[in-house]
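Title: Prediction job returns without error message
Component: structure pipeline
Severity: low
Priority: P3
Assignee: unassigned

Description:
Job completed but the reporter wants confirmation the result is attached to the right record. Sequence as submitted:
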Amino acid sequence: MSTRPTFRRNLALIGGISFFAFAALAPAGFAQSAVDQSALARFDMANMASRQVIDYRVIDQALGSLVVANGDKSEIRFEALKGDGERALGELVSGFASVDPTELNGNEQLAYWLNLRAILVLRASAQAYPGRGVDQLVQPGSAFFTTKAVTVSGVSLSIGDIDAIITKRAAANPNVIYGLVLPVREAPAFPSIAYRGNTVVNALNDAARSFINRSGTVRAKADTVQVPRFLINHRHYLGEDDAALIGHIRGLASAKLGQKLATATKLASDERVSFNYFIERSFADRGPAAGTFGGGEGRAAGS
């Protein structure tokens, strides 16, 4: 089965001033540095009167080729990321780099940053897989987050830098956190299609509810709630103390989960983490107990 994606449409600003240019981008060798808030300050600006809308159909195609929706989870075709897939992602990154996001309104900017980040995460995953130590890979401050990966409006940015740009909006809507996808099962799912400015807020709210109510994400026992490390790492935006974060979770929980959280007062971190990779299988490889096409359990950290 061929999984080599082909991307033939240019991204364009509909009714706007420029087309995204496609150019090869070197996949590795960037210097590492911490988030420089002063350099990121220019991205606080937005043109709230702008009606420019980015056509993300090529990003839809990329996500459709490289990410497999699995209920409320997502799995990455890591093998397809290698070679042609990684080169195509580099071209998409160059396309994003040709646009000045400050010319967009606030919601279009948010969609822009979330979509660029998703593509950068896929490309960084291609470079890291199948290396060991996925638990260290996605730790805050790791090279995965600090490696400079794209230059936008003259500013070199890492995934961590883009996270800083996105999370400035968390005070107004904490659910932006659920757009910070990672190549692990214990994080919010990749979107099945690109974010759009006119629907990005609703899409993030849906992503938040989907993650919190996913089977096994939030586990309540007596007065303690166990949650994935992802939520603990982002608790600054969701609730500094246990009561505030539990309250945030309750606000997203289904009626059934809400009942389980009724007596919860303390939090515990679930430290499990594993690549959310999709296994390609031919029908010839399937035995009577093989189950449905693809899927399969992810490899445990360090295995």
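Comment from assignee: result matches the submitted record. The chain is about 40% helix and 10% strand.
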